[in-house]
Amino acid sequence: MGGSMNGNARYLDLLVRVLTNEIYRDPPAGPHYLLGRGYDQRLREAGKDWPSVAHTMAGSRCLRQVRATVEHVLGNGVAGDLVETGVWRGGVCILMRALLEVYGDPSRRVWVADSFSGMPESDAAGDSELALHQFNDVLAVSQEEVEENFRRYGLLDDRVVFLAGWFEDTLPAAPIERIALLRMDADLRSSTTAILENLYDKVSPGGIIVVDDYSLPMCSAAVRTFRDARGITDPIYSIDDDAVWWCKAGSAPHVRASVATGTGAAS
Hints:
Elements: H1 2-19, E1 28-30, H2 41-46, E2 50-51, H3 60-75, E3 81-85, H4 91-102, E4 110-114, H5 127-130, H6 136-139, H7 143-152, E5 160-164, H8 167-170, E6 179-184, H9 189-199, E7 203-211, H10 217-230, E8 237-238, E9 244-247
Parallel strand pairs: 3-4, 3-6, 4-5, 6-7
Antiparallel strand pairs: 1-2, 7-9, 8-9
């Protein structure tokens, strides 16, 4: 058993390095101020570049937090599926599916929710100034490409469920019953609000909510507005300079702050 677990740990560690392409070290395809620069390990670890080849732009620290969180919900019996909203090339969801495979979970699904056509135009406060839709030449990744990425890891099956379209169209009727991990990577105020309004109530007690882009003012404003309106006081913890997480109240057994690789409470 010890050798098997060690092998699983080594596989998961390697998978993180492959998904972030710390192996072959591809140069960034954005943002614009990084164009023409070579690979920078510090930026890749922190998720500060848009890789030209890697299957995720989430940094390795965020991926390690995903691993710790999935291990936490599995180990503590937190009910529900694993959901990511905003998936780009699918790397985080690929890691989620791999974790279910490694730990022998028989039934949970991984929900892969994205427009698969890039970022929407939004006139919400802060969104229009950021104008991320102008970078859809890099940010738009088709469902077919994401499916192929899953297939290359041997992880595409009927427990990987795609929700294609704008969040305000797909999430209200999404057939998701319970959520153990809700990972939000939507950047915009409008998108973040749509995710929380449609999915938060499905997160189980003791479930984990991750906000990848909390450092963006319009994203954090959407989170604070939602939490204030609902009277949510669960502490928010930092993962890195950008991402945060919190645990939904009514906790499952043994819920603890150590599910993050990050630091203490965020403001």
